[in-house]
Amino acid sequence: MQGLHPPRDGEGDHAQHGGGGCPLGAAPRKAPPSTTPLRAAVPLPVPGRMLAALLALHPLPADADVLVDNVNGVTLTAGGAVERFNGILIGDDGRIEQVLTRTDKRPGKVDYKLDGKGRVLIPGIVDSRVQLMEFGLAQLTGDEAPPDARPRPEDLDLALAKAQQLLLARGITTVTDMGTTIEDWQAYRRAGDLGTLRLRIVAYAEGVDAMILVGGPGPTTWLYEDRLRLNGVRLRLDGTLAAREAWLKAPYADGPAKGAVARLTDTQLKNLLSRAAMDNFQVAVDAAGDHSVAAVLDAIDELSLTYQGERRWRIEGSDLVDPADLPRLSGKGLVVSMQPQQLAQPTAIEQRIGAARLGSAHAWKGLADAGATLAFGSNAPLAPPEPFAGMAAAITRQGADGLPFGGWQPQQRLTREQALAAYTTGGARAAFAEGRIGRIAQGERADFLLLDNDPLLASPDELRAIRVLETWVGGKRVFQAGG
């Protein structure tokens, strides 16, 4: 049996009605363990409702040929090499028709021409771990909602509009939504049907039941011009290291564990992985502790004998990985999704695991060297979606205050190119979306940012301070600073 495949050119571009129904009477949303309880269902203030409604119902502009010229363009190849250019030609289908250098002749006639005025152009950011609806609801309701309230469909619609507005302003053009419910999916479909889905959403259902309810016999097709797809399923094996909920091979150094046991037995984990794999759903497993990571690798080793092909099993979190397990990543095509902004509290990590294991914590370079695809994200709303701050943390292993001096476990620092890749090409590959997004290349969707500084040349402080001037999705401008 074959796994998911990279996209074929043009596949699913105009699908509007396939891939997952929207049955009524779905079970209410439950707050996931070890996360902030869901906030929802309080009546929103009338001005807030009106503003969000205006944002949600304003349609995207008509398609047109667009020439974006006079830019300082930066993109990465699939192998991580830097390519520079100074213009792009976008077709009326929202794809890049040509990447232009200074010696290339410009087209004589286009519908619209944008003078980039020498600004930096990079691919749109892929945030590989977001709880999208929780993020939007948190922006709308703050602390006003009771923690066990059930959101109404209109609340979800407004939350999605607000989340899109905030994420696009930060340069995030694609999100991996971890823990999608049927109610979330219905909201995404409503936005897609209305033509107000600007962000690209790659969804992973909250458990196998939701996976079957949304996807049915398999992953959905790409919908709404590659703006929505159910890729797979999220499984929870443990919690975070900071909360003492990661499943470790050795005891915590600073006291008894707080629920730090596996939430699934080995048999349950393998059965769930098998159930998803038999219908070609991609699996993402929350596995923060070194024991959890080893358990996932054990299960993959066994199931790979049955479920062959390129599966791209995802390990989410990986706060701590036993160095003895790193060689086991080689040749498996694994994806490791991590959040570099978590490094803001290294003291807490040191207290949890002790000095002897520090070199194995947030081992970004070790995982990359072992052959894993790194995909970086924010885990919003539990952390702010700030990709350039995440890149700065990845290349320095320091917080915004420049501490600790020299970087925390500096041997795990990434290069600037690796950090940018984890938010672009790596995020696209992690979601089986390469060839569609993640690069500035002919045939890919024209998702890009105009910035006030080059992330490959800026100092760490400058990197954190980068401003997104414009955000484009599918060849259409969806955010402009001050506009």
Notes on the protein architecture:
The chain has 483 residues and is an alpha/beta fold. The protein folds into two domains: 46-58 and 125-437, TIM Barrel; 62-124 and 440-483, Urease, subunit C, domain 1 (Roll). Helices cover 27% and strands 20% of the residues. It has 13 helices and 16 strands. It has helices at residues 46-57, 132-141, 153-169, 182-194, 207-215, 266-277, 290-303, 346-353, 364-369, 387-396, 416-422, 425-430, 460-464; strands spanning 66-76, 82-90, 96-100, 112-115, 120-123, 125-130, 172-180, 200-206, 228-236, 282-287, 314-317, 335-338, 373-376, 448-451, 468-473, 476-480. Strands 1, 2, 3, 4, 5, 14, 15 and 16 form an eight-stranded mixed β-sheet that branches. It has an eight-stranded parallel β-sheet with strand order 6-7-8-9-10-11-12-13. The longest helix has 17 residues, at 153-169. The radius of gyration is 22 Å and the shape is globular.
